[in-house]
Structure formats: structure tokens, C-alpha cells
Amino acid sequence: MxxxxxxxxxxxxxxxxxKRNDGYHNIHSLFxxxxxxxxxxxxxxxxxxxxxxxxxxxxxxENNIVWKAAxxxxxxxxxxxxxxxxxxxxxxxxxxxxxxxxxxxxxxKGLQLLWNIDISPKELxxxxxxxxxxxxxxxxxxxxxxxxxxxxxxxxxxxxxxTILIVFPALHSNTSRAYAGLYxxxxxxxxxxxIDALQQSKDDCSKMKDLLxxxxxxxxxxxxxxxxxxxxxxxxQGAFFASMSxxxxxxxxxxxxxxxxxxxxxxxxxxxxxxxxFT
Length: 279
Description:
Layout: E1 2-19, E2 25-46, E3 49-53, H1 65-76, E4 82-88, H2 99-114, H3 121-131, E5 144-147, E6 152-155, E7 163-168, H4 175-180, H5 194-203, H6 208-211, H7 217-223, H8 225-236, E8 241-244, E9 251-255, H9 258-265, E10 272-277
Parallel strand pairs: 3-4
Antiparallel strand pairs: 1-2, 2-4, 2-5, 5-6, 7-9, 7-10, 8-9
């Protein structure tokens, strides 16, 4: 039996460049894995693929991305074995943290080991991209510059002593509605150099709020003004940067030290919160 951890991610900057001919959008973003928030998957050999989830997701198993990933791999490589998969959900659903995509990537890596499949990293990434735009990111463990529809992953090394406070509002943000609320008159956009912005912010963190942004915030904050209020409160509580992750609804603030982050957490007693090292 294998036990696997599927981490969450946050977006540090998210720019929607333009709409593609295939209906997807090209994006430009920095993804950071948050390993202190993770779903847990256990897998063991079985005659067929089965999935047991720790919470009711209101979707049949055959529509669950974990089940789809397992069966895609099984069919593509003519595997005559199955797997009993247990999924413990800790990452909130529909929160902009990539929980489903992380689960899919993690099960691909786990079943590659369990079924002893010889797959190149390129093949595995191509398989992952069929399941979802940002699934390939979760095949590796580092922060990455994300481009294309999410399948182009450029990992990079980054270390800091920042602390992140993550706030989980009791809201579900719909990604399709987030895209529908974008202004499209200025597509395609010129990419902002987020890597350079990150480096400048590491040297002087006060610059970050002027250099990094999330294009979804305007449309999502219009739907859910309380998210804008959380962002404002994060700054009031001492964050040097605050933002929404992905298309929401998760909000986060970055702090220079853990003590200030824990004090800030007390301002959000109505929401579930986590304080963790950023990297």
C-alpha cells in the first residue's frame, strides 16, 4: 500500500493573456505548492479500479478526476491490474487551490509506481494535461511559472522566510463565471514579468502589491464583495501582500513573520484559516 500527499497551490499573480482558438485561455501565473494543506490518497493493488472518498462530493465516481486519471492510465498502457483508491479530502473544493488537479497528478505518479509502468516525464505530463490544464504542475514539487492554458510549466527555485495566512470563506466561486466576467477588449495582453516582480519583491516586499495582481479579482469581488473586505482586512492586519488564489474563493496574505500572521488570524474568527510557512 502507498500513501501519497497531494498539496494545495496558490497563485502569486495571475494574468489572463487572451482567449485561444480552442476555447481555453492563455494564462501567465506563478504557482506555489502549499504542502501544509494536502489531500491524502492511499492506493493498493486490486482487481479493478475503485474509489472511496472521505466526503460526499455530489458527483458519481466516474466523474471524479481521480477515477478518470486512474482509468486513463490503465487503458493507455494496457494495465491488467486495478487499484483500490482512498481519498481523504482536506483541500476545500472550488476554492482556487487546485485540489482536484493535485489529486489527479498524485494518483498518476502513485499508480506509475504501483503498476510499475515505464513512462517518461514528457509522456506523463501529456497524459496529465488531458485531465486538466493545471494538472501537469502538480507532477513536480517546486514553484513554477505557468503559461499556455496551464500545461506549460517552468519550475524555479525560490526560498524566503515569509509566512502565509490562508483564509477560506464559506463561498464557492465558479471558474466559468470568473472568465465570463473578464474584460476582453484588451486581449491579447502583453505578459508581465512575474519572475522579475517576485525577485524585486524579495528584495523589497513593499513593492509586491504594486507588481503582482490577479485578473479575476475584479469580476469575483463584484459577485462577492466580502472577499474584497477580507483582502482589505489582511492589509490592515499587517500583510505586505494580499490576494485571491486562482478564481477564488480562497484569500491569502503574506507576512514577514509568523507572530504577526498568527495575530492577524484572530481577525478572521468567522472563517477557517491556516498559518503556514510560505516555502
